[in-house]
Design a protein that fits this description.
By secondary structure, this protein is an alpha/beta fold. The chain folds into two domains: about 130 residues, FAD/NAD(P)-binding domain (3-Layer(bba) Sandwich), CATH 3.50.50.60; about 200 residues, FAD/NAD(P)-binding domain. About 30% of the residues lie in helices and about 25% in strands. It contains ten helices and 26 strands. Strands 5-2-1-9-21-20 form a six-stranded mixed beta sheet, with helices on one face. A five-stranded parallel beta sheet has the order 11-18-12-13-14. Strands 6-7-8 form a three-stranded antiparallel beta sheet, with no helix packed on it. β20 and β21 form a beta hairpin. α1 runs parallel beside α8. The two termini are about 25 Å apart. The relative contact order is 0.16. The mean pLDDT is about 95. The protein binds flavin-adenine dinucleotide (FAD).
C-alpha cells in the first residue's frame, strides 16, 4: 500500500490503516505536515512556523505503524503498480491512495504567479512574512513617501482572514514599533471578483464579514477582478491600484503534474473519481481530498479539511471491504459546517442544520476548533500561549521576525 501526500486526507488514511494493523508507505515532499488553516497567522507574525507544522516521523511513531519516505512522487506505472520518486526510488503497491492536494490558482492573470505571493505552504508563509517586514522597513526608512499598500486578492476565507490579520497588525505596529508610520499610512485592500465576500457562505455572513473588515479600515472591493499584475501595481477594470505587497489567495487548482498525467479530470480540473472515490479504470487506486472531484449530489465538495479527512477514512473502510470480497460503498460526506475569522471577537460560522453564528460566539468556536484540530500537545500549548498574549495583552504574539531562509 502506498499513500502519496501527508495532508489531511493522507494522514487520516494512514491513521486508520495503522489501527487496522496494515502496512503502508507514506510519500510526502516535506518531512512535516502543515496545518494550512493557520498559515495566515504565521505570515502576519501571530504564530511561529513550528506551531503549524508537525514532523511526519513523530506522527507515524505515535500511530504505531507506517513507513515514511520523503520525496516527490514523480510517476505511476499503472500496469506494474509501481510509484517512482524523483531520484529514481520505486515503491510497489497493491493499493494506491492519491492525496496530493491542490496548488494556488492564478487564473492566467499575467504576472500574477511571478509577482503575487500565494499562501499555501509553510515556505509561502515564511516568504510573505519576510516581504511584509521588508515593505514596512522600507516605508519607515523613506522620508519622502511613507505610504504602504498591502493588497489581498481573493475574498474567500483565506483572503478575509489575511486581510483581517493585516489590519490587526497595522493597529499594533503603526505609531508604536513603527513611529515613522501612522495608521493611515498603511492601507489594506481586499479585492474579490465575485459580487460578495465569502461566496460559499450565506449572504448574511458575507455582509457581516465586509462590515467588520471595513470597521477595521480594510478597503473591500467586490466585483473587482484583477486583470494584470505589474511591478508595484495591480490592474483592475477601474484602473491601476498601487501595491507594495500582493497576497494571492484567489483559489486553488489541481496542477498538471507528471504524477497525475493521463488521469481523467472533471470540468473543474480535479481528478475524476467514482462515487466510492476510486479512479475510473483503476479500482486499486483512490483519489482523496483537494485533488479529487468527489461530489455531494451534482456539486463537487468544497476543498476543505473535513471532506479530505472523511475521504481518507472512507478509503480505508472501502479497502477493508474490497479485501474481504465486498463491493466498495459510495462516499457520503457529512457537512459539519465552515468558519472564517476576521479578527478579535469577529468571525462567521455556518453550522449544520442551517445554524449561523457571528461575533464573539463564532470567534470562540473558531479558536476552540482550531486548537482541537492542531496536531501535537506542544503546538497546541504554543498556539494557546500566543493567542492569549495577543488577544488578552493585545500585543504582537510570535513577532515580525523574518524567518530564516526556507524550511524545505
Ligand atoms: C491558507 C489556507 C487556509 C485554509 N483554511 C482552511 C480552513 O480554515 N478550514 C478548512 O476546512 N480548510 C481550510 N483550507 C483548506 C484545507 O487546508 C485543504 O482543503 C486540505 O489541506 C486538503 O487536504 P488534502 O489532504 O487533500 O491536501 P493537502 O493538505 O494540501 O496535502 C497534500 C500533500 O501532498 C503533498 N504532495 C503533493 N504532491 C506530492 C508529490 N508528487 N509527492 C509527494 N508529496 C506530494 C503536499 O506537499 C501536501 O503536503 C485552507 C487552505 C489554505 C491553503
Amino acid at each position: 500500500m502506498v499513500v502519496i501526500g501527508a495532508g489531511f486526507a493522507g494522514l487520516a488514511a494512514m491513521a486508520d490503516l495503522a489501527r487496522l494493523g496494515w502496512d503502508a508507505w507514506l510519500v510526502e515532499r516535506q518531512p512535516y505536515t502543515t496545518f494550512q488553516p493557520l498559515l495566515y497567522q504565521v505570515a502576519t507574525g501571530g504564530l511561529n512556523l513550528e506551531d503549524v507544522a508537525f514532523p511526519i516521523r513523530s506522527l507515524l511513531r505515535r500511530m504505531g505503524r507506517g513507513r515514511f519516505v520523503q520525496g516527490v512522487a514523480a510517476s505511476v506505472d499503472w500496469d506494474l503498480r509501481q510509484v517512482t520518486l524523483e531520484g529514481g526510488q520505486t515503491l510497489s503497491y497493491d493499493h494506491l491512495l492519491l492525496a496530493t492536494g491542490a496548488a494556488p490558482k492564478f487564473f492566467g492573470v499575467p504576472s500574477a504567479a511571478e509577482l503575487g505571493l500565494p499562501l499555501h505552504t509553510l515556505v509561502d508563509a515564511a516568504r510573505l512574512r519576510t516581504r511584509l517586514v521588508a515593505v514596512l522597513e522600507r516605508a519607515a526608512a523613506d522620508h519622502t513617501q511613507h505610504r504602504v499598500h498591502l493588497v489581498v486578492v481573493g475574498g474567500g476565507p483565506t483572503g478575509v482572514e489575511t486581510a483581517g490579520a493585516l489590519a490587526e497588525l497595522r493597529d499594533l505596529l503603526a505609531g508604536r514599533d513603527y513611529p515613522e508610520l501612522g495608521r493611515d499610512d498603511i492601507s489594506i485592500e481586499l479585492l474579490e471578483a465575485a459580487p460578495r465576500l465569502l461566496p460559499s457562505f450565506h449572504p448574511e455572513l458575507s455582509r457581516y464579514a465586509r462590515r467588520e473588515l471595513e470597521r477595521r479600515s480594510v478597503v473591500v472591493l467586490t466585483g473587482s477582478a484583477v486583470r494584470q499584475v505589474q511591478e508595484g501595481a495591480v490592474l483592475l477594470d477601474s484602473g491601476l491600484r498601487p501595491t507594495d505587497l500582493l497576497v494571492w489567495s484567489a483559489g486553488v487548482e489541481v496542477a498538471d503534474s507528471p504524477l497525475l498525467r493521463g488521469l481523467a479530470r472533471t470540468a473543474s480540473g480535479r481528478l475524476d473519481v467514482t462515487p466510492s472515490l476510486q479512479l475510473p479504470g483503476h479500482p486499486e487506486a483512490f483519489a482523496l481530498g483537494d485533488c479529487a472531484g468527489a461530489r455531494a449530489g451534482t456539486a463537487e465538495l468544497p476543498q476543505l479539511a473535513q471532506p479530505a479527512i472523511q475521504a481518507g477514512r472512507h478509503a480505508v473502510r472501502q479497502l477493508r471491504r474490497i479485501r474481504s470480497g465486498q463491493e466498495p460503498l459510495p462516499f457520503r460526506y457529512r457537512d459539519r459546517g465552515t468558519m472564517a475569522t476576521i479578527g478579535r471577537r469577529a468571525a462567521v460560522a455556518q453550522l449544520r442544520g442551517g445554524l449561523r453564528l457571528t461575533g464573539t460566539a463564532a470567534w470562540l468556536a473558531w479558536l476552540g476548533l482550531h486548537l482541537v484540530e492542531l496536531l501535537g500537545v506542544r503546538n497546541r500549548a504554543s498556539v494557546l500561549l500566543n493567542w492569549t498574549w495577543h488577544y488578552l495583552a493585545w500585543r504582537q504574539a510570535a513577532g515580525l521576525i523574518p524567518p530564516a531562509p526556507g524550511p524545505g
